[in-house]
Amino acid sequence: MKFKCLNCEDSCCSRKTVALTHKDVIRIDSYIENNVFDYLIFIPELQGSAIVKGDKYSGVMTLKRENGECVFLKDNKCQIHPVRPIACRMYPCNPIFTEYKNGTKLVIKNNECPGIGKGDEFDIKSLAVQWRNERLEYEKIINKWNGNLIDFVKDIIK
């Protein structure tokens, strides 16, 4: 698939809330100078996303938003583009995995976006598989934290 971000006024970065995985946080943390947790927020729920249960941090981990936009969007450009969350790297595609007794089926749906068909080719299937694997690993970690009440923030970037 070919895609190029055209920096639309109706940017996906101002319309979408993206659930993060621990690997997204690690990538972002390695790229920015400030504490990555200054840019995170936990929202009550987001369909299909793992929920952290705790006193201080509870909900689905996402990037903060300012004026409705991703905290890293400045002048309609992503300030962490090389390490942006994997869900952002897959945009404008929406992978849907369905589990069956004899395996897993992947269907890729495209969101409406004028950048489809323009720019460089990217391998959405590989990104989708990576995204799924990171989410499954993250869900296992969250289940451990939820069961053992380990300090979520201190343990996520170790």
Question: Explain this structure to me?
Answer:
The protein has helices at 12-15, 22-31, 86-90, 124-148, 152-156, and strands spanning 2-3, 40-43, 60-63, 65-66, 69-70, 73-74, 77-78, 93-100, 103-110, 120-121. It is globular. The protein has one domain. The longest helix is centred in the C-terminal third of the chain and has 25 residues, at 124-148. The strands form five sheets. Strands 1-10 form a two-stranded antiparallel sheet. The chain has a two-stranded antiparallel sheet with strand order 2-3. It has a two-stranded antiparallel ribbon with strand order 4-5. Strand 4 (65-66) and strand 5 form a beta hairpin. The mean pLDDT is 85. By secondary structure, the protein is α+β, with helices and mostly antiparallel strands.
Write the layout of secondary structure elements.
Layout: E1 2-3, H1 12-15, H2 22-31, E2 40-43, E3 60-63, E4 65-66, E5 69-70, E6 73-74, E7 77-78, H3 86-90, E8 93-100, E9 103-110, E10 120-121, H4 124-148, H5 152-156
Antiparallel strand pairs: 1-10, 2-3, 4-5, 6-7, 8-9
